[in-house]
Amino acid sequence: MDLQLKGKTALVLGGSKGLGRGVADALAAEGVAVALVARGQEALDRAVSEISSRGAKAVGFAADLANWPTVEDAANAARKELGHIDILVNNSGGPPPSGVVGVSAKVWEDQFNAMVMPLFRITDMLIGDMRARKWGRILNIASSSVVEPIPTIGVSNTLRSAIVGWAKTLATETARDGITVNTLLPGAILTDRIVQLSSAAAERQKITVEEAIQRNTQTIPLGRLGTPAEFGAVAAFLASPLAAYVTGSLIRIDGGALRSV
Hints:
- The chain has two domains: 9-187 and 227-253, NAD(P)-binding Rossmann-like Domain (Rossmann fold, 3-Layer(aba) Sandwich); 189-225, no CATH class.
- 48% of the residues lie in helices and 15% in strands.
- It contains nine helices and seven strands; from the N terminus they run E-H-E-H-E-H-E-H-H-E-H-E-H-H-H-E.
- The chain has a seven-stranded parallel beta sheet, with helices on both faces.
- The longest helix has 21 residues, at 154-174.
- The mean pLDDT is 96.
């Protein structure tokens, strides 16, 4: 299926690996020029090189979401390189595992400023051009935990839920400008984040990381972890003109793991 994305441009936060890389790969395969933003220069350079080697347009800019001036500079550089941004993929990392009781005010503030506030700010920064062009796509990568909170990642549950409320409101405000806003809810996808959480679980349960991952897959109806490529394929469709009537939605990509309707 032709997703009618050829000639579009995208800015992908956290685009050098994991879920962001899966989205960047899928968009690039459809003819989208992608600008990747990530902290690690080595991984960023490798991702840009690999995407470019397949004949796609890819550029990379190093930035840290917790340091807004670096993000602002990266976004401006991306616009200078690509001309404008049609598709924004908001993607932030997760905090260390924890509950919510006894979490210090500084942790809450620091994680909000790293996970949430930069997504609000970069969206405000880019949405004016989308409105002027009467076309835009904003994809937010959250987590299935906003539907069914995971006890071991309480800070993440809370802050990603804030993104969901913001995104739903934004979708209503921008719909008549030709801009859709959707939030993707990954379940257990094989990324560094899953390895990190599985390592923490393995330590608590006195088992190996491999055993922790296996126990996780037993709770998934499909019986396996998802892949970044599968996640990216869903994102690419939502970013396309074919999904013009889908906005304000939460899209589950979890192998059926969430039990609620």
